[in-house]
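Sharing a chain and its predicted structure for anyone who wants a worked example. Both blocks are below, sequence first, tokens second.
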Amino acid sequence: MTENRSVPFFFVPFFAVPCFVVSLLLIALGSPLAGAASKTTVEDIDRMLDAGAVLLALRVIEQEQPKFSTNPVPWQHWEQRRLAILEFREDWSAVIGRIAKYPSSLPDDFRVSAGESAARAYLAEGDAEAATAVIAGLIWGTAQDTAMTVERTERLTRWRAQLAESYLLAGQLPDARSTVLRYRLDYGSDPEGWRLAHAKGLMRAGHLNEARELLVGLDSTEVAYLKLLLRARSISVEPVELLSEMGPFLGGGRLLAAERAQLWAALAGVAARYRDHEVGVTAMEQAVALRAPIAAGDRFISVNADALWDAYGAYAVALANDSHLLVGRFDAWLALAEQYSGSGDVRARAMYAYLSTQQRDLNIAGIARKGLVSTLAREPRGLAVLSGLYLESSRYPEISAVPPSLRAPLIAYAVGASRRDLAGKLLPGLDAAARHGLALEWRAPVAVALIGTKRVDEAVALFDKDLVAGDGSPRMAVDAAVRVALALQVAGEYAHAATLLSRARAMAGSPWERRELLSLAAQAESHAGNHVRAARLYIESAAVPAGGPTDMWSRSASLQAAGALRSGGLDEDAVGVLKATLSDSPQPEELEFVEHALRHF
């Protein structure tokens, strides 16, 4: 685990860098300066990665990687980048699957490098047997190479350390210790990170005191995290005390989401010992919301939605007992839940969750499900919790078992998490009548999901009537329209996007919002081939008084208007707009560009 796991990414607002505006306009104007599209190179991929565009780089690799059969050397260079991206994204199953399909004629150096990737992937997936086999193959496969170069020595030390790690993962502590002893005799020291890995192995094996002793004297964020997990296993620690100690680690940046989930699950375990239902349920909700794949070697506590269902049930029964409610009189239980729900109380969520599973009164169960959605939707990670409850629980093993009334909120989660495949799977069971009856907050993500499954007409129909439709604010309506319009543009449905954005402009609440909507609509019109209409919208966007005389938005919109005018055959007007931009442009870079563009007109 490292302190900083992100690929370097530098987001620079376009209005702060005139050169960026210039490059966009070069493309829009079709200037000879833009040049012809060139074939993608490995260096281009590296630039994408340096800029933080990891998914873009992966997409380009998938589309343009040379074939091994015709270009084996370039294929290897591209494949190295592909594996690096998959490892960075911790898509270990993809790494394993990719390497398994490699041709047998690969050069030795590449096969060794791929073997190292496979070993890391198997260790992360928790397949200790496969990891051991791969690592042993690496060690013995190069045994005939008697020249102990610096590179080979470094590789051997790394592989033997990984071999010890694979033994730890399998719970074979004696074999791991024996491997490290031989390592120590050969190299005069322990493998880097051995004490930490050994402590983790001891924790997984239940040897907590030995693990604590190994961590003494080590100082890092990861060590502090492990000590907290060990602290949670102490009989003496109380829930509030542990929560206070966890505080510095709960924000983003210090730990992975999956590691924070394990801390919350550990707190839930402590709360269960003290029968502190409120802390226990709240902690388990956070654990489920933050759940994410984590390397097997770092997995100490199970995080699953079934535990949350159980916690909800135990809390609901305790609350009912405190209020002297009778089992089976669930109308009284529902009234208590509604009493709690006004303040967004966790008690309401527990009551609603419990009642939603009751089979005696299906009407109350349906009302309870709506209450659970409503109360969770108000929480920052509420939809993630909802998805865990209904999509990752043994209570609902198949999507077909998920009640139709929950489909739209779960689609909203899937769309927000960029899980388009999941959103598409949730659409069946949500018929046209149900979709048109949805509240605005759910209608937009459902429309996006429909667009993603090429059901554009059905998506557009959801916004045929008044955007607000009596159940939302103009602000919500504008946000919904923009989300759907952007999805339409991605799908190539520019005319529909332009129409929807035009309707949204009528509800714009500020000059900033209006000019952004005008610009988005202009982009849609331009893509649809309506260049003159796009130019009008760009000019209108430039004229919205939202900045000052040196407002970069206005200047950029004017330049884009010139490009649209030229594409529409109005070269003279394009020149006029460029000249007007030039006369009011204090930036040397823009001055140089406009002069250059005029010369090529």
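Comments welcome. The two ends are 56 Å apart (CA to CA).
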